[in-house]
Design a protein that fits this description.
Strand 1 and strand 2 form a beta hairpin. Helix content is 63%, strand content 8%. It is built from 9 helices and 6 strands, in the order αββαβαβββαααααα. With 270 residues, it is α+β, with helices and mostly antiparallel strands. The radius of gyration is 21 Å and the shape is elongated. The strands form 2 sheets. Strands 3-4-6-5 form a 4-stranded mixed beta sheet, with helices on both faces. A two-stranded antiparallel ribbon has the order 1-2. Helix 1 packs antiparallel against helix 6, helix 3 crosses helix 5 and helix 3 crosses helix 7. Bound molecules: zinc ion.
């Protein structure tokens, strides 16, 4: 354990910290609609490109539904929400596809490409329910949460590489134990709390989008209630999950509701 001097052990970590400092100061700083500033791992053009690539991969793999009342509803809700993103959605090229799949899921890729699975439609139930989940997913994209997560992962990876060099003289087993502990610390201490913050922000911004688009924000509460029932009550405890527990989410939504209802009352779409 003491074969290396403190200096030899500390040097790779020092270099890693310097690299992280460089990454930190050279990264774009972006302020999202929730008012929080963060460093981005990608620029908007790269996000657009990556989003489009993943979208095309999904469409190649999956069977899409392009006509009929369900596809129509999905397109209408997406169109109204896209308009409601306003300046936050500037530069986005919005598109939506309905995919035939039992998965209870929907997501929006960086740059604005949206995928909705038919499995979520019975849970969404109404256009307002659908607007809740789509607004939430679109908010993740306009707030550029993916890009922020990538920046954090890059920094974590750099630090772990530094630590690995620092431990280079130790046995494989020792290295694996220490790296595992640091990796878990980063996961629970840094990446997951950020994930929960992203969820709360997406809820808040998404609620504003749906209200602006003329969908009653009160419906968001019943949607998340249905969503938690669809999960069969098997959600992991909040600490272990990036998703806030059902009760926390509903409570936060209730607090945001009065402001959202005001926006809804002024919406031209009603
Ligand atoms: Zn989310």
């Amino acid at each position: 354990m003491n074969r290396r001097s403190i200096f030899t052990r500390a040097l790779p970590i020092g270099i890693a910290l310097l690299v992280i400092a460089f990454q930190f100061f050279s990264a774009e700083k972006f302020t999202n609609e929730a008012g929080r500033s963060a460093h981005m791992g990608l620029n908007p053009q790269q996000e657009q490109q990556l989003g489009l690539q993943s979208y095309q991969q999904v469409l190649q793999r999956e069977q899409t539904i392009d006509s009929g009342p369900e596809a129509e509803m999905v397109r209408t809700v997406a169109g109204r929400l896209a308009q409601a993103t306003g300046t936050a959605g500037k530069g986005f090229e919005w598109a939506v596809s309905l995919v035939r799949s039992p998965q209870v899921n929907a997501f929006c890729l960086p740059g604005g490409k949206i995928v909705v699975y038919t499995g979520i439609l019975p849970v969404a139930k109404t256009p307002a329910g659908l607007a809740t989940v789509m607004g939430h997913e679109m908010a993740h994209a306009t707030a550029r949460h993916g890009s922020e997560r990538l920046f954090q992962q890059k920094a974590t990876q750099t630090l772990l590489t530094g630590v690995q060099y620092s431990l280079g003289d130790m046995s494989y087993e020792q290295q694996r134990m220490i790296m595992g502990a640091i990796g878990a610390g980063a996961q629970y201490g840094i990446l997951m709390p950020f994930g929960r913050e992203h969820e709360s922000e997406a809820d808040a911004i998404g609620l504003t989008y749906m209200a602006r688009a003329g969908y009653d924000p009160r419906e968001a509460v019943s949607f998340w209630e249905r969503m938690s029932q669809a999960g069969g009550g098997k959600a992991p405890p909040e600490f272990l999950s990036t998703h806030p527990s059902h009760d926390t989410r509903i409570q936060q939504l209730q607090e945001m509701l009065p402001q959202a209802i005001e926006i809804y009352n002024q919406s031209a779409h009603r």
